[in-house]
Amino acid sequence: MFLVRDTAPRKEKTMRRRAFGTIEKLPSGNYRAYWRNEGKNVRAPHTFPNKRAAQDWLANQQAQFASGQITPDRPAQDAEKQLVTLNQWKEIWLERCQAEKTLTPKTIQTYKSGYKTHLEKPFGHRILSTITVDDIREWYTGFDPTKPGAKKTAYRTLSTLLRAAVSEGLLDKSPAQLRGAMSKTRRGLDNPRAIVATPEQVRELAEAMPENLAITVLLGFWCSMRFGEITELRRKDIELGSDRALVRVRRAVQYAAGFGYTVGLPKTAAGVRDIAVPSAMVPDLRKHLERFVGESPDALLVHSPADSSRWLSNNSLNYYFKKAVAAVEGLDSRFVFHGLRHSGLTHAGQCGATLAELLRRAGHSDINTVLIYQHATRERDA
């Protein structure tokens, strides 16, 4: 319940006395809020983009006044902190993560993109302390049911931001408390990443790719490698014998808009690993090294078509990979490059690999992740 005063030009001022505080609409379209304490105005230190945000600030001030946190002798403490909106906190926290390198550029880009699409409108201008469990539950249950992945990612982003706000002292407790919202779910058979290619189809895929890129398909399937791990491989990372080979995964490259390419450790600590190349693939690897890789130890295994010292982009690879998928009879047209990794792990499990072996080969530290990779095929074969 608030008094609203409109000071915009060409509009008559309206004033209605409310229970606590005053809100004024300014010519800019923003809102100003204040309340009276012992005959003195207590003003918000900045204006608000909408009336709801101004109301939230007054409600927060009223709650502190009622609880004794604000008295004539003790004004509001840490006023700026009390007024931080989710938009402001997101910028502060991500800038800090970028400066301290606690998140990769790709993760920062993912957070920003998901936030803008799914979180900015419902929560962005809300003061942190006014976001409730019920608010989050209403948003979560109303999320587009056809986008479960985006729903989970958006909730994870919101939960991460609010937990960081608790650590910063901006909140006493995170309101992101929905049970099961962060649980890992098994991929359904309709998920493109759950499509399984057979070893025969993988060989056809490799043959349908340009010769200099065929090795990416084989490494994705037989060595269960991620795209960023493959595209950062260099000659020095390959140990080649007469009938055996070892791939040493020590780095991965990522591209993020606004950051460009960055090289760092693999996705997880377990991602630093040595992978024994199946003997049937060794001739393909040897041929690729001889024909397409420079003699320098730092020469990239695959590279940009325009520059052998630049990384192969996801877009460049996918352009050819989609064509290759279309050329393989019986392979679902939705099959994606990451599906090679899933297919390879599934095939290894069907051939008797233990969970420990699968974890080590895939570079995973979470056993449930490997179980998810395998679940779709178990359902298909049941």
Defining traits:
three-stranded antiparallel beta sheet; hpI Integrase, Chain A; 382 residues; 3 domains; alpha+beta; DNA polymerase, domain 1; four-stranded mixed beta sheet; 14 helices; 11% strand; 44% helix
Read across the widest sheet, the strand sequence of neighbours is 1-2-3-4
How many individual helices?
14
Quaternary arrangement of the chains shown?
A: single chain
- Classify the beta-strand content into a percent band: 5-15%
Count of individual domains:
3
Largest sheet: 4 strands, mixed
Net shape: elongated
Which ranges are low-confidence, i.e. pLDDT below 50, for 5 or more consecutive residues?
7-17
| Secondary structure: number of strands | 9
CATH superfamily of the largest domain: Intergrase catalytic core
What is the C-level CATH assignment of the largest domain?
Mainly Alpha
Radius of gyration, whole Å: 28 Å
Instruction: Could you tell me the CATH topology label of the largest domain.
Output: hpI Integrase, Chain A
Helix-strand category: alpha+beta
